[in-house]
Specification:
Keywords: Cell wall, Cell wall biogenesis/degradation, Glycoprotein, Hydroxylation, Leucine-rich repeat, Repeat, Secreted, Signal. The protein contains eight helices and 22 strands. By secondary structure, the chain is of the alpha/beta class. The protein starts with a helix and ends in a 9-residue tail after the last helix. The structure holds 2-acetamido-2-deoxy-beta-D-glucopyranose (4 copies).
């Protein structure tokens, strides 16, 4: 018990004083937290007897058993909070009416309209520092968990009883560990937002079998390749940006008929683009900037009839920028700068189309300003990649390579921006009902 106390103290102090130490939670520390969670987690759904003493439950009355459990869960959550600068959780004490707590929302239970239960927690943007105790798993009626833009650190415990979870947003915190696989066990999940944390490692393939509407993974440390199952996903918006993904864009992407927006920028993705991308009739935003893509832009891109924003900059693309693409009716931002293109159709010349921003800087385009030097272009342009034999566009799967971290920087990197590169997705209606008036939507 003593050892545990020391650890907590160490954890809390380091977490609040120097976020980078908290971020670097070692495997051993994560395992310790997990073990501790396994010890306290009520396995049969009943509260252990010692909870009666610990939370003084004997003298308290509750409208129903689920609100009693919610009280235990929220008191444990309150205990895990060690900085709450706006006093958001100030009224979470000496009060058994959990429905009156700031950020806690109650509703009739789905399976029994006669009883009231905790259906949502919304603590967005409160700068709270803390962690998620296993006891939160007692909130079995929770459908909405919004804690974005706080300072929660540690891992996401095994909340496998959150069977009604619909919107889960933990973005812009200091969470670590591998992909939180527990989310795969939530059958109702539609909106999953993990962006701006420090999750690492591989994505589970099963993630793309879920019936999600929106999936935000950007600004973490995910690596390996994007699973081949991507094409099974029902998402309309998905962001992989600013991670360490490598390998191809899976050819199955062509099956994602709900897809409106996909952001793949700033990874180590490579190879030629699969021509299957051209079958995405509803695609409005396609951003693959700052990767290692090479070869030609497939002719099929001229079938992207809904495309508005097409960002191909900072890759090693070659060949001709086709007029057919530049003429696409909704295209308003086509950025293909910082590549090795050698030619472009007349309609692709920046300024040639009203209400459209085209950027062709730093390519190998004769007679265009601001291009690369000839001796930079020559070695690339004279060795064109044959995409009909490329692993990414013509079949085959390249080996998936784990990410090896660069040497540690000596300075602490700046905190992530609150603003995200993508607009917030349309919020599902059920969630709107639960979101309190006056709180800000997720970033
Ligand atoms: C709980 O009730 C017992 C007796 O019923 C009493 O002695 C004790 O002081 C009460 N505790 C609190 C916290 O009210
Ligand atoms: C929060 O509560 C503390 C102690 O009651 C008080 O000193 C502080 O000013 C409060 N902060 C805000 C933002 O209300
Ligand atoms: C809810 O309460 C009503 C009236 O007391 C009762 O008729 C009904 O059976 C109850 N429903 C459930 C699911 O318990
Ligand atoms: C086009 O999109 C890029 C990338 O999102 C952005 O940096 C640029 O400002 C946009 N251009 C215009 C004119 O909106």
């Amino acid at each position: 018990m003593k050892v545990f106390g020391c650890f907590v103290l160490f954890f809390l102090v380091t977490c609040s004083s120097l976020s980078s130490i908290c971020l670097a939670l070692s495997d051993a520390e994560a395992a310790f937290i997990t073990r501790r969670q396994l010890l306290t987690l009520p396995k049969d759904g009943k509260l252990p007897d010692n909870f009666d003493d610990e939370y003084g439950l004997k003298n308290k009355t509750f409208a129903n058993e689920r609100l009693k459990k919610a009280y235990v869960a929220l008191q444990a959550f309150k205990k895990s909070i060690y900085s709450d600068p706006f006093n958001t959780t100030a009224n979470w004490v000496d009060n058994t009416d959990v429905c009156s707590y700031n950020g806690v929302f109650c509703a009739p239970a789905l399976d029994d309209p006669n009883i009231t239960v905790v259906a949502g927690i919304d603590l967005n943007g409160n700068d709270i520092a803390g962690s998620f105790p296993a006891e939160l798993g007692l909130l079995t009626d929770l459908a909405l968990f919004h804690v974005n833009s706080n300072r929660f650190c540690g891992i996401i415990p095994d909340f496998s009883d959150w069977k009604l979870m619909f919107e889960f947003d933990v973005s812009n915190n200091r969470l670590v560990g591998s992909f939180p696989r527990v989310v795969l066990s939530w059958p109702s999940l539609k909106f999953l937002d993990l962006r701006y944390n420090n999750f690492e490692g591989e994505l589970p393939c099963d993630l793309f079998d879920m019936k999600l509407d929106a999936l935000f993974l950007n600004n973490n440390r995910f690596s390996y390749s994007i699973p081949e199952k991507l094409g099974r996903s029902t998402v309309s918006v998905v962001t992989f940006a600013h991670n360490n993904f490598n390998g191809c864009i899976p050819r199955s992407i062509g099956n994602m008929q709900n897809l409106n927006e996909i952001i793949l920028s700033d990874n180590k993705l490579s190879g030629c683009f699969p021509s299957e991308i051209g079958s995405l009739k509803n695609l409005r935003v396609f951003d693959v900037s700052s990767n290692l893509f090479h070869g030609n832009v497939p002719q099929s891109f001229s079938s992207l009839e809904s495309i508005q924003t097409l960002i191909l900059s900072h890759n090693q693309l070659t060949g001709f920028v086709s007029e057919q693409i530049c003429k696409l009716p909704s295209l308003s931002n086509f950025t293909f700068s910082y590549n090795y293109f050698q030619g472009l159709g007349n309609e692709c010349i920046p300024g040639s189309k009203v209400n459209s921003a085209f950027d062709d800087a730093s390519n190998c385009l004769a007679e265009r300003p601001s291009q690369k030097w000839a001796n930079t272009c020559e070695p690339v342009v004279s060795n064109p990649v044959d995409c009909s034999r490329d692993m990414c566009s013509a079949g085959g799967t390249p080996p998936s390579i784990p990410y090896t971290a660069p040497p540690k920087p000596t300075t602490i990197p700046p905190a992530p921006e609150l603003k995200t590169p993508t607009p917030a997705p349309p919020t599902p209606r059920e969630a709107k009902v639960l979101r309190p008036k006056g709180t800000t939507p997720p970033p």
